């Protein structure tokens, strides 16, 4: 979602390999390694974009969803769902109709929640991240899904002491912290 947070793309590819091997029945996981390929390209190929967050149109995709969009601030886009990246994510939601969702970002070792506090608490026990109520986030994917009664949590991976962008040498510890979260959430809902 946010260009400089590309460590989460590596994380999701790793989880895909891990979850494939589990060969689970009666549950379907849909992993989306990257929602912002243009932003990711900029952040990983050009020094001056190293700390860039937005997409190729300089819009923050995680403020572009139709959920109190008007409160999203400077980079929210011209209108709700103005960006193809946002609409692509909505198409995935429409296609698979998820019963719950995790949105991985970096950093801070935090689970942001808006509703479903007890689920957030259980996830917190499995990864050691603290839970924080998301009061000032608008137009985000998790905001949008929670508004449609789909439990959704934003997981900020990596210690806040690390600098953006978090480098791959921190990936093994992040994987260890969060690898069970999709599985745990699937059992809880
Ligand atoms: Zn982010």
Overview of this protein structure:
This protein is of the alpha/beta class and 189 residues long. It has a single domain, classed as Zn peptidases (Aminopeptidase, 3-Layer(aba) Sandwich). It is built from 7 helices and 4 strands, in the order αααββαβαβαα. The chain has helices at residues 7-22, 37-45, 84-96, 117-127, 141-147, 171-178, 181-188, and strands at 101-106, 110-113, 130-133, 152-157. The protein has a 4-stranded mixed β-sheet with strand order 1-4-2-3, sandwiched between helices. Helix 4 runs antiparallel to helix 7. The two termini are 25 Å apart. 40% of the residues are buried.
SSE layout and pairing:
Blueprint: H1 7-22, H2 37-45, H3 84-96, E1 101-106, E2 110-113, H4 117-127, E3 130-133, H5 141-147, E4 152-157, H6 171-178, H7 181-188
Parallel strand pairs: 1-4, 2-3
Antiparallel strand pairs: 2-4
Helix pairs in contact: 4-7
The chain binds zinc ion.
């Amino acid at each position: 979602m946010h260009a400089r947070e590309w460590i989460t793309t590596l994380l999701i590819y790793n989880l895909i390999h891990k979850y494939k091997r589990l060969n689970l029945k009666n549950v379907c996981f849909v992993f989306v390694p990257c929602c912002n390929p243009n932003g990711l390209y900029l952040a990983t190929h050009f020094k001056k974009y190293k700390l860039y967050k937005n997409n190729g149109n300089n819009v923050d995709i995680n403020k572009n969803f139709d959920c109190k969009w008007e409160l999203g601030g400077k980079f929210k886009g011209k209108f709700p769902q103005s960006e193809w990246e946002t609409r692509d994510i909505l198409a995935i939601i429409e296609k698979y109709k998820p019963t719950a969702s995790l949105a991985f970002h970096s950093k801070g070792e935090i689970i942001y929640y808006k509703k479903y506090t007890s689920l957030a608490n259980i996830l917190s026990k499995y990864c050691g991240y603290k839970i924080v109520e998301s009061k000032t986030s608008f137009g985000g994917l998790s905001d949008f899904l929670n508004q449609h009664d789909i439990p959704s949590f934003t997981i900020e991976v990596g210690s806040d002491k690390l600098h953006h962008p978090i480098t791959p040498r921190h990936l093994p510890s992040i994987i260890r912290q969060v690898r069970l979260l999709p599985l745990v959430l699937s059992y809880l809902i």
